[in-house]
Amino acid sequence: LFRENGELIFALTRMRMVSRGVSIVGKIVKDRAILLKVEEISKKLKFFGPINFQFIKDRYNKIWFLEVNPRLSGSIEFSIRAGFNPFLFYDKNKKFKVNKIKYNKIYKRSFIINDE
């Protein structure tokens, strides 16, 4: 999440554990190496608002940048359930509050199917 001036406010890393085109099961992790890559890219490009970065970390822990999307990720519900809800943190004084993050918990994505 970025301020209007491009300053990084808060970032949370998630590990995709099961996917079927989209992340189905994920884990909120503390990955400093990924966060450093986000900061490195962000210094060159001035982002604003919610930005979704995607990386792959190979078996040698080398980080490969895949893409950046100017939107919330489809698996934002993992972050919300872990304690970071970007919809609730912006107050009138432009201050952000973050609850205590529940790291290393595994979350399963919920889907709502409308039969109508």
Structural key phrases:
single chain, 116 residues, alpha+beta, three-stranded antiparallel beta sheet, two-stranded antiparallel ribbon, 2 helices, 17% helix
Ordered list of secondary-structure elements with their pairings:
Blueprint: E1 13-19, E2 23-29, H1 32-44, E3 52-57, E4 63-69, H2 76-82, E5 106-108
Antiparallel strand pairs: 1-2, 2-5, 3-4
Verbal overview:
The longest helix has 13 residues. The chain is globular. A three-stranded antiparallel sheet has the order 1-2-5. It has a two-stranded antiparallel ribbon with strand order 3-4. A hairpin with a 5-residue loop joins β3 and β4. With 116 residues, it is α+β, with helices and mostly antiparallel strands. The N and C termini lie far apart (35 Å).
Order of helical and strand elements: EEHEEHE
Low-confidence stretches: none
Largest sheet entry: 3 strands, antiparallel
Summed over residues and divided by their number, the pLDDT gives a mean of: 88
Helix content: 10-25%
Strand order of the largest sheet: 1-2-5
Any idea what the radius of gyration is? 15 Å
β-strand number: 5
Sheet/helix structural class: alpha+beta
Write down the overall geometry.
Answer: globular
Count of DSSP-assigned helices: 2
Report the β-strand fraction as a percent range: 25-35%
* Distance N to C terminus: 35 Å
Brief overview, please?
The protein is of the alpha+beta class and 116 residues long. It is built from 2 helices and 5 strands; from the N terminus they run ββαββαβ.
